[in-house]
Amino acid sequence: MLDRRSFGLSLLASLASAAAPQIAAAQPATGASKLVLIGTKGGPRVGGPRNNPSNLLLVDGVPFVVDCGYGAARGVVNAGVKLPDIRYIFVTHHHSDHNLEYGNIVDAAWSSGLNAPIRSFGPKGTVEMTDLYWKLNRFDVETRIADEGKPDPRKLLQPTDIEEGVILDIPGVKVSALRVPHPPIADNFAYKFETKVGVIVFSGDTAYSEKLANFAKGADILVHESLYEPGVDRMVARVPFAATLKEHLLASHTKTEDIGRVAAIAKPKLLVLSHLVPGDDPTITDDMWLEGVRKNYDGKAVVAKEQMAIDLPLP
Ligand SMILES: [Zn+2]
Ligand SMILES: [Zn+2]
To answer: How far is the CA of 95 from the centre of ligand 1 (A)?
Structure first.
C-alpha cells in the first residue's frame, strides 16, 4: 500500500531532478489554480489503493469536476474543496466508472449547504439521468425541503446534453468537446479546457486517436487514459465474467506505446497517465507504465496517483 505522503515526497524528489513542473500535495482551495487527480483507476470495480475515475480542475479556486466515478465526492473533499463550491461538472461518457456519482456528488453538495447552481455537461442522456436521479431520490429530497428548509436541489443542477464543439465559454475558461473512439459507445468525448492558467486536455476513454492528438496540440497538460497490455491477461484471470473483457479493452482503450504516439503529436508540457487499466495490480510499477510511452515520446510524463496535485500555471 502506498503512503501518500512518502509517495508525494519521492515524486517531488524525482521530479525536481528533471526540473519538472511543481507537483505538491493537495491544499485547500484558496483561489488556487491546480489540477488534482481524484480517481486514477479505469473501470468500475471498487478496491485497492486507486479510486474510480474523477479529476478536479481548480481555476482561481473555482472547481470543475471531470467525471464522477464511485468515490468522487469523497476525493474532492479530501482535496480540500468544499462540495457546495463546485460550479461545473463534466461527464465524458456514460460508462458507470465515469457517472456513478454524478447525481450523488450534487446530492452530497446539497447536504453540505449547496445554494447556487451547478451546470453539468455530458453526452446525450445527461439530462434524462439528472431527471431520473431526482425521481429516484424524490422522497428524501422532498422530505428535507419541507422538514429542513433546504433549497430545491432539482433547480440547482442544470444539465446539458452536449455535442462536439465549444460547450462552455466563461471569462477565463473555455471548454471544448471532441468525439473520441470508445466502442461500442458513440457518444463519448474528450474535453479541452483553455483557461487563463493553461490548457488542460482530458482524453476521456478512448482508443488510439490521432484526432485527439491534434485536438491536444499546444496543451500544457494532457491527461490520457492508459492500458498496460501485458497486465490485461492477469486482470482478466482475476475477474469473473470476463470472457469478452480483454477484447473490449484492446478495442476501446489506448496502449501505453500508443499514448507515446499521441503525445509525440500533441507535445504537451506534461503528460499524465491516468485511468489506469489494470489499476489494481501492484506489480505494475510507474516505470512499467512509462516504458511503452518512452518508445515513442521523450517529453515529461508522470503516472497519476490519488490526490496528486499539479499547480497551474506550469512553470
Ligand atoms: Zn472508464
Ligand atoms: Zn468507458
So the answer is: 6
